[in-house]
Amino acid sequence: MSAASFVRLARCRGPRGLGCRGLLLYTVATSRRHLRTFGPGLSSTRFDPDSSGRPTPWDSFGIWDNRIDEPILLPSSIRYGKIIPKVSLSKVGAASLIGQRKENEDRYQVSQMTENIIYFAVFDGHGGSEAADFCDNYMEQYIKDLVVQEDNLELVLTRAFLDVDKALQKHLRLSPNASGANAGTTATVALLRDGIELVVASVGDSRAMLGRKGKALKLTVDHHPDRKDEKERIKKSGGFVTWNSLGQPNVNGRLAMTRSIGDFDLKNMGVIAQPETRRIKLHHVNDAFLALTTDGINFIMNSQEICDVINQCHDPKEAAQRISEQSLQYGSEDNSTIIVVPFGAWGKQKGSDASFSFSRSFVSSGRWA
C-alpha cells in the first residue's frame, strides 16, 4: 500500500468500521511483527513512502535498531502521512560541566511545554548568572503564552526573546544587586511540534545542529562582531569593534557577540536581542539527533567532530557526557553544556573512529576581553 493510499484509507473509516486509530495501530503492529521476523535492513514491508511501488526496507523509516525504542505519534503520523516516532524526554541526554571557571553560568532546560510542543534551551551567561537565570526561569512561560495566540513558531520565538529582554531590563533596574546590571546571556531555543516541525531561534554563540545522514547540519550562525552584517550594524549604531590579544573581536572592547539578552549598556551600540530563526521539517529516516551546545564546546570542537562523537555513542545520555568531558580534555576552560535529542535515525550512522584536527586552538574561550 502506498503512503498516499494509506493516508486516504486512514482518513475515512476502513473496512468493517475500523477507524483511523485502529487502522494505524493495526498497520504499525503488523509491520513491527514483520520487523521481528525478518530483522532490520530487509524488505519486510509493503510501505513505499516515495510511491514508487517498490518494497521499502525498514531502515528507511529510521527504525534502525532497538537502542532507542519509541512509540509512534499516531495523530501526527496520520496528519503527515508518514511514521513519526515520539520523542520521549526520558531519552534526551544533557550534561553541563563547570570547567576551569569559578562558577557555572550555563543553564539548560528540556520540557514538554504543551501537549504537542517540546521545549529545549541553552543559555550561556556572562558578567554574572543573572541574565541566564532569568531566561531559565521565564523564557518557556513567555513562549507558552504566545503559542496560544500565534501559530507561526518563528514569530513566537522572536517575540518571546524581545519580551524577555525587556522584562530582564525592568527586573535588573528594580534589583538591589547592582553587580548584575551589565549581565547578559546567549539564548538558543528549539521547539519541536508534532514530532516533525523543528523551529530554532538563537542570539549569541550557543549553537544548534542536526545530525543528518551522518553529517552536521548547522541550524544557527554565531553572532560574532567579525560577521560583516553584524559589524555594519554595530558601527551604524555608534559602536566599534576591537580585537583582543587572542585575536577575538569584541564590541566596544567588551563583548564577543553582537546579539544577546541583557548587556543593556551596549544596546544603544547595536547589540540586539532579536534572534535569527530557522524552521526545518524533520526526516526521521535520515535525522538522528538535535544537539544544542554552548561555546565551551563549540570553541574547541567543530560541528562535524561533535556529530562524529555522538554517532559513536550508544544513547544520547552517553553522548552528552562524552562531548562535555571531551571538550575539557581538549583544553576548553569554559563551562561546557550540551543537550542531545534522539530522532528516528538514531543509531543508523554508527560511523567509524573519527579523526580529529590537531590544529585546534588551545586557548580559553570567553566573551569578555
UniProtKB/TrEMBL annotation:
One of its GO terms (molecular function) is protein serine/threonine phosphatase activity. Its EC number is 3.1.3.16. One of its GO terms (cellular component) is mitochondrial matrix. Keywords: Hydrolase, Manganese, Metal-binding, Mitochondrion, Protein phosphatase, Transit peptide. Residues 91-343 form the PPM-type phosphatase domain. Pfam families: PP2C. It is found in: Mitochondrion matrix. Its cofactor is Mn(2+). The keyword Nucleotide-binding does not apply. Its main location: mitochondrion. Belongs to the PP2C family. This is protein-serine/threonine phosphatase. It comes from Muraenolepis orangiensis (Patagonian moray cod). The lineage of its organism: Eukaryota, Metazoa, Chordata, Craniata, Vertebrata.
